[in-house]
Amino acid sequence: MKSLLCVAVSVVFSWVAVAARTELPDDPAYDLRPGFSFACRVRFDRTEGPRGGWATVVQKGNPALPGSYWLRASRSPEKPSIDFFVNLGHGPEPRVHSGVKPVAGRWYDLAAGWDGTNAWLSVDGKVTRTRRTGTAEPLAASPVVGDLEGEVADVWFGAGRAGNGDVGAGRAGNEVSRRS
Predict the structure, then answer these.
(1) pLDDT for 54-105, tens place per residue?
(2) Structural element, H or E, at residue 150
(3) What does pTM read for this prediction?
(4) C-alpha 36, offset from chain centre
(5) Is residue 167 scored above 70 in pLDDT?
(6) Collapsing DSSP states into helix, strand and coil, what is residue 154?
(7) What is the pairing mode between strands 143-147 and 10-14?
(8) Separation between Cα atoms, residue 70 and residue 145, nearest integer Å
């Protein structure tokens, strides 16, 4: 008989990121897996980032690689939106498209995750889900936070605040405070 041990991991970061990339250590706590989630507060000074037509909030790996995820604001003239992508081995599409047009200077409460069946994104408490089934393979890559012009604060990974679209869940984990 096989037994399964589930461990909830929460890690909290808070810092200012102005047009700067902050790399976190490559750690299993940041791997895409059923129940994976994160949350943060973000303010965009500009809705395009220093590398192109989007502002990256959180990204692990190249979005074309299995096991990657990417939360971004896009300034696409056709569909400006805050979007979340997961790659389960068949590419990053379809994305979770919030339909929320990002506005420079405004703070947003964001949370995103994958529950094993759906990728989901919460923008100021409004949750959008996109069906994304498959198996997430661990990806050897350091997550990046804040490749944008603006501020990212109160970043949470794991169980707790971002649990499955419920941004009202309790605070848990280790807190690390850092300014850049």
Answers:
(1) 888 999 999 999 999 999 988 776 678 999 999 999 999 999 999 998 988 9
(2) strand 150-158
(3) 0.79
(4) 10
(5) no
(6) strand
(7) unpaired
(8) 10
Residue 7: closest CA among 158, 126, 166: 158
Rounded distance between C-alpha atoms, residue 26 and residue 160, angstroms? 21
Measured distance CA(172)–CA(117) in Å, rounded: 25
Contact 39, 146 (CB under 8 A): no
SS (H, E, C) 37-89: EEEEEEEECCCCECCECEEEEEEECCCCCCCCEEEEEECCCCCCEEEEEECCC
Rounded to whole angstroms, the Cα distance separating 64 from 28 reads: 20
* CA 54/CA 58 separation, integer angstroms: 12
Residue among 117, 172, 180, 113 at smallest CA distance from 150: 180
| Radius of gyration, CA atoms only, the chain | 15
HSE (side-chain half, CA atoms, 13 Å) at 85: 26
Burial class (CB in 10 A: 0-12, 13-18, 19+), 166: middle
Residue type, 110: L
Coil/strand/helix, residue 29: helix
Three-state SS for 24? coil
